[in-house]
Amino acid sequence: xxxxxxxxxxxxxxxxxxxxxxxxxxxxxxxxxxxxxxxxxxxxxxxxxxxxxxxxxxxxxxxxxxxxxxxxxxxxxxxxxxxxxxxxxxxxxxxxxxxxxxxxxxxxxxxxxx
Length: 114
Known about the structure:
The protein has a domain at 34-96. The termini are far apart. The protein has helices spanning 37-58, 66-96, and strands at 11-15, 18-21, 26-27. The chain contains two helices and three strands; from the N terminus they run βββαα. By secondary structure, the protein is mostly helical. Strand 2 and strand 3 form a beta hairpin. Residues 1-28 are annotated as: Disordered. Keywords: Membrane, Transmembrane, Transmembrane helix. The chain crosses the membrane at residues 75-96.
């Protein structure tokens, strides 16, 4: 049974499939916003960027000399690879790295030692 936005309790609904916990963090209950959505958007963006670079290489825009268009398309295609790798790392980071602080929200406070 769905709860409305003002319902008391440790979590309440804030939209389709999203919840907010008592600390104000949004999620789907798994700790991820919408699993796969960011990855799909990133992959589609990378594909569109590479297709555009190849299209510019093959058919330069009107008024752009062939050599300049090809040089720009090659720069766009090859220089985009490190950026794409960085984006993929950032998007996949929740799955690649261990989570910190997840246990601290559910465990009692530990005394700090100097």
